[in-house]
Amino acid sequence: MALGLDLDFRRWPALERRELRAGAAKQDERGAEGASVAAGGAGAEPGLSERERRIAAALAEAAMPPGRFLEGAGAATARRLAGWLGSIPPHLAQGLRAALWAMELAPVPTRLRPLSALPLEERMEVLRGFEQSRARALRSLLRAVLTPLRFLHYDQPEMFQHVGCRYELPTVRNEEPRWLAQVTNGREVEEDLELECEVLVIGTGAGGAAAAYELASRGHAVLMLEEGDYHRRASFTGRPARAYRDMYRDHGLDMAVGNVSIPVFAGRAVGGSTVINSGTCYRAPETTFASWRGGMGLPAEFSSDGLAPYYERVERMLQVAPADPLHLGAIGPIVRRGAERLGLRHGPLQRNAPDCDGQGICCFGCPTGAKRSTDVSYVPEALKRGAQLITAARVRTIDIVAGRARGATAVLGGDTRAETSGGRAGPGRRRPRLVVRAEAVVVAGGALMTPLLLRRSGACLASGMLGKNLSIHPASKVMALFDERIDQWQGIPQGYQIDHFADEGLMFEGGSLPFDVAALAVPWTGHRYTELMEQYPHLATFGFMIKDTSRGEVRPGIGGTPLVLYTMNQEDVARMQRGIELLCEVFLAAGARRVLPLVAGCDEVNGPGDLERLRAQPIKAGDLDIAAFHPLGTCRIGVDPRSSCLGLDHQAHDVAGLYVCDGSAIPSSLGVNPQMTIMAMSLRAAELLSERLSG
């Protein structure tokens, strides 16, 4: 039975909902159950056959042998993997099982036996061969198999104790502010709903939350829908395993595939990717705006001066200021020392965390609430101004009538895996359906999900550009060992910068990695891998991002997930190589004992001779260890409907009343972290939409 709730556009009575505390308790119970599964606890469904467990154990044993004080991996790690596979989307679990079998059979042509039948030393030799191979497919296969094994092996309190690190934070009690009455937990809704509003905003990340706030501030009745949950401070315990499961899209396992496999990270929660980013805040450089005006014909308002009023409003809301030197940890001074000796411009980053206390886990949710992600800034401020929010609401289609967006249809509760089995939340149980009618629809699902939703809805298809023009802001890192103790788990994970090469499209930002995440970042195997992990207290990490000229595409994938295609061109490979060379120089100038560029064929750079060999080495995309955090451009604005999806007001060229306010609308790579630009452009778009609705 559908419930017709006619919501008054100006008064917005709170939607009928269950007690928040009960919802939070249920969410915590789900978290506890997930943790049990991840650990292979009692009652967990086996995700591997007995033979596959033996394969996983043999791999883990060879890749992560015991050290002086760190335990080695083996059968226990394989049991954890079996349990963990039951908690991820089935197609990802199937892919990992296929990778296990590929590793098992790889030695047969040369050694006449599968991997698990080889003695330990021979297994180690096989893995070293994969690790050192210049063949991208072999290194990608090794990474795919070892990433979850390493994560599960090191995600144990005793491992952290061995290297002197904190494992997790104590749980913080959630506050219960009045604006929470405006939030409905979609997991608790048991009947179909029909709602009406003036503006429907789909997504609560940088773009959707800013647009919702602006529209609600101007007196419009705004309903926000969010696919993820509303995680409060009690959820932010500092455990990456919980964050990847609960706050990252597809458990952080989305990959761009092409001539290099690149993890592409995006958030799935109220606040979107702002919940799991490092809080870095940049305005886009004028050179980027100039390229939009010169190359795409965008008007003068797309300039540093034209967008300055919107940037200023964003900076006030986020309370942007330089990172506090007290919380930079040991890596900030090290990078400062190296940069000064080389004569490079450097300094603390601009961040949105005015009360930061240096917990060092920004990418897994801020436990102190200091980081002004949209879940603690724009979303609450929109709710205070009368907006409504429904969480755990997965939008299936935008409802288009006579060429105009008139609302959307969504399903409530559950996760994306349930949708592949007919939209049912359990045996014999159909998930509730939500139908929203609206005067205008703002889509803000991000550059990966927005094009999939628009394609399902039949929107933005005329130009053929939907899903294309993808930039991903490729990133890499260099590690270094120092005689001094670093303890990189302490301090802001991204608090310092070298912006000397920004005009070349290179931004150096860093940097720290928690112990278990650092374990994933080293592409080595065997004894030298364990030896390095035992030196974690003396290990420093710093990273960089390039303004990419390569472009990719997002297509519909299995089970509603995005299929991300991306081929890195030689210009970007050369820029990545230059970034690695420069970071090696900085670490050497700072007095590093060993510098680890983590490039295939170049394990260490420990002096001028090694650095020259790195410069002379012909590097391919597949030789690099790359990640991506800022996908943009898959539904870009433009003046020409033949080469863009949206007009300059962010309204779809071919569907009236349909607006896109997220990273997909950004025309090109920015060269800097994009959250402030997405917010500024969304505030501008919301102003234009408000004028149209009020006219």
Automatic annotation (TrEMBL):
Keyword set, alphabetical order: FAD, Flavoprotein, Oxidoreductase
Domain called Glucose-methanol-choline oxidoreductase N-terminal: residue spans: 245-475
Comp. bias regions, Basic and acidic residues: 22-32
Region entry Disordered, spans: 22-48
InterPro entries per record: FAD-dep_OxRdtase_2_FAD-bd (IPR003953), FAD/NAD-bd_sf (IPR036188), GMC_OxRdtase_N (IPR000172), GMC_OxRtase_C (IPR007867)
A Pfam match: GMC_oxred_N
Domain Glucose-methanol-choline oxidoreductase C-terminal: 566-681
GO molecular function, one term: flavin adenine dinucleotide binding
Residue stretches making up the FAD-dependent oxidoreductase 2 FAD-binding domain: 199-235
Family per similarity comment: Belongs to the GMC oxidoreductase family.
UniProt protein name: GMC oxidoreductase
